Amino acid sequence: MPQSPDDLDAVAVRTWCSLALEALGAEREEIDAINVYPVADGDTGTNLFLTMESAAQALEAVFAAHETVTGPTASAPVLSDAVRAMAHGALIGARGNSGTILSQLLRGMSEELSQRGSADGEDLRRALDTAATSAYRAVAHPVEGTVLTVATAAAEAAAAEAPGTGARATAAAVARAAYDGARKALTATTGQLDALGRAGVVDAGGRGLVTVLGALVEALTGEAVAVRAHAPHGVLVDDCSADHADEGGPAFEVIYLLEADDAAVDRLRGRLDGLGDSLVVVGGDGLWNVHVHVDDAGAAVEAGVEAGRPYRIRITHFGADRLAPPRERAQRAVVAVVPGEGLMTLCTEAGATTVLARPGEPPASGELVDAIRRAHAREVVLLPNDADLRHTAAAAAQQVRTEGVRVALIPTRSAVQGIAALAVHEPDRRFDEDVVAMTSAAGATRYAELAVAERQSWTMAGVCQAGDVLGLIDGDVAVIGTEVAATARTVLDRMLSAGGELVTLVLGDGTPEGLAEALEAHVREHHLAVDTLTYHGGRQSAPLLIGIE
Questions:
Q1: What separation in angstroms does the CA of 513 have from each of 66, 490, 519, 546?
Q2: pTM of this prediction?
Q3: Residues 337-358: tens digit of each pLDDT
Q4: Contact assessment for residue 62 and residue 82, using Cβ atoms and an 8 Å cutoff
């Protein structure tokens, strides 16, 4: 049967993923700011956004690999490859309870579409049904009035549109029906859980799912849909577990990826169910994502070790200050995210509270909230030092503001901008004046970094090959080279051609011996009256960071 233009193929999946990421980013703050259950950690929208971001990155990698083999003008990958990549990316990047369940919904869809080059309405109906069923099975103690309820309603509405009676429905029509059913179910969640009813609000995870389904409709029809009108003003809830309490609750959220077989995971579910609540285990085929709230984080990790090989372990302490002895609040503090241990020492010595961003493991908003609380100050300047952390940092700042802390978020996009801001920080002057000075210093610092290409790819500077050294200026690839020192010199010359008085170099582990001295000498010889500062960042994702003030 020929494919309808309203059916789902790999290109439509790519568009869907991009639109869903954009929509979740736009609505993240609204969802985050009113999250109160089961823990008021203010990161529901951020978790959904970061989960979808990981899905989008995995999907783009599949398209890039396909173009490498077949050429940029060839046809797109098949549907099964696209949805499998999207689901896998969501699995390995799932954040929080809501993100973990979203990843399982996507996995359920991918399992149903695993042999398809494209999908019509009946195929999509089965995919949505499998998604809802698999998500229910992943939650230890499912309860109605949550994202599970919304997913089921979407699947039931899709079934009504494509009843399997022989009449062929398009994927676009089924997506629209699923979206409408999800919206209706979302509104009804207010009356299904006491916590939601008392606040007069809807479920946050369900709200996120409605947003994702709305993006699917837009991808298939080209028509944007409205979500916000169907989310009452108030609080949104991020949970679908019956194990909860309005007050108190476990002290830690533990999340990790786990390599283990099915039998070991079954035993792990029983072990973790006895340790805490909000247990969700998703995945399959030997790779799982484990999420649980516990008081004994060590026991939760040990259970994973007994089951297989846990990695990418994230432990977030809910309300760290509630266990700490009372102490006098400082007037002002700076909290900075740093990409390596060397800069952590530098920033700590400068008086900042630091959060380490390990390569491939950016901090969650809960970690930033914990760091702000540890700073124990009435006024806090937050430096994310990474463009990709803007949503995470904004969510953390918004949550802590509700606790009476005055937080200013300076949107630093690189660690070198954070160093510049910290250099002019003066805690004795008025808060607003300090923030303005730090923001100006960061904004006056152009930034660059070197990276090594992992595969052949098209860039703003041309085609790069795997192993090439890339010079990124202000986030875009500007130089393609074959050797670190030569590429770094080219980047420096290009940046300094527009002027500059101070060069900051941050070297990571593994950079060529003598690189710092060689670059300092190059600046002295070719750029008069320009000073150079060099720091050793330790293990960081980029071998070299460059700042020009």
A1: 37, 19, 12, 17
A2: 0.60
A3: 998 878 888 888 888 999 988 7
A4: yes
